[in-house]
Structures are given as C-alpha cells and as structure tokens.
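Input chain follows. Return structure tokens only.
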Amino acid sequence: MLEKLKLLVTGLNGVVGQALWPGLKDRYIVSALSRSGVDGLPDDRVFRADVADIDSLRTAFEGVDVVLNLAADGGLSSEAGMDAGWPSMLQNNIIGTYNVLEVARQAGVKRVILASSGATANGYELEEPYKSLIAVDDVPVPDSWEMINEFSEPKPISLYGVTKLFGEDLGRYYAATTPLSVINLRISSCGPVDEAKPGRAQANWSSHRDIQQLTVKCIEAPADLRFDIFWATSDNRKLFRDNAHAKEVLGYAPQDGVR
C-alpha cells in the first residue's frame, strides 16, 4: 500500500477549502495553516500562522509533499469580495504567495498548487458574446464562440484579478528556477452551495465534485509537470472558460454541468 501524501492546505476554512475538503480528507494526510485555526483535524496538524509573516510558516511546511495555497483576500470568502482593500490583498495575495512559494522551496516541498481565479479574465464578460452568455435575463445564445483558454490574453478588471495574475507569474518563475513544480488552478464559480446560480455561474460553474477531482489530479500529476494553468470549470452549455487543457493534460473528466 502506498504511503499517503502529506498535504498542507492554507485557507482551508474558506469557501473553496470547504468545497474541496470531502475529496481530500481521506485521501491524504492533511494539515492546515490559518490565522484562526481549523476544526476537524488533530491539533498537531493545525498551524496558526499568517501567510504574510514568512517566519511563522516554516514549522507547518516541514515534511510536506504538496502545498495547496487557498489563502487570499478578495474572493468569495472575503466580506468585500473582489473589492477587498489593497493593503490586505497586498499582504495576503502578493506577499503571502511569495512567502508560501519561498518557504516551500526551502523546505523541499515537491509541488505547490496556487488558487488562481477567473478574475484574471473577467474583462471578457464586458464584451459580446460573453456578455450574453453570463446574462441573468433570458437572452439569445450564439451558436458558437471563441473559448478563453490558458493562452488567451489576461483581462483583469479588479485589483484582485491583478494579484492572481501576479501569483501565476511568480509560480512560473519558481518552476523555472527551482526544483518546485507549480500548478495554477483558475477557480471559477464555486460557492458554498453546490449549485449554479443565475447569471455568470450558468457559464462558469464548477461543481464541488468536479473541483475536487481536478484538484486531486493536480496534486497527483506526474513530477515532470513543472508548470501549468488550468481552468476549474464543469461542462456547462454556455462554458467559455476552456477546461479542454485540463482534460488533455490531466485526464480531467467533469461529471457535472449546467445544461
């Protein structure tokens, strides 16, 4: 029997962390890092620390195989959403991401998975046909449209999206210059309730079991996958955030989608 991987998750208490938890808790030896603590784990696998304080992180990273970095401000778990203040996003999304990657490198972690975001490309939704695809009202849907993939031009329209693009490029730097493998997951509409609400989620929804599957495939991807970016989306009828790359590279097979 293979020994379970040791997985450290930052931000496990957040919306995405809680959506992922059922798919992680029995498959891996999970430890968690957060400022407020985490319920449901043994005390020796819960580390109270702040990702913006690099020295507070080191103990949690010892002996870890893979880090899943969900800690951030400006997302679904933030009171102000994507309008969270710059000082907090600077500390959590930029300095914090650097700290996680750097401590992982120093600790000999094999892979870091960074939670990126659909906010890296939200500007497309100001344009047609994407504007119609996310409309709350019942509007005509075009017969076809160009998909937005990992190579498409980024179009952030929030500072939150900018910070997530920084994280992707920082991950690319670490993958190119250190032994770390870094994978970016562009998480789309994944909320606390496992259903697609009207509007944007009709196109961009990711069910809990689909994002669990994709995350597991990222964690367990071959070691020679040094760097990549994947859209975390289910197979929705109005989908334009292209999950084809995850299917091709990782064997991702979504089970859900808005029809």
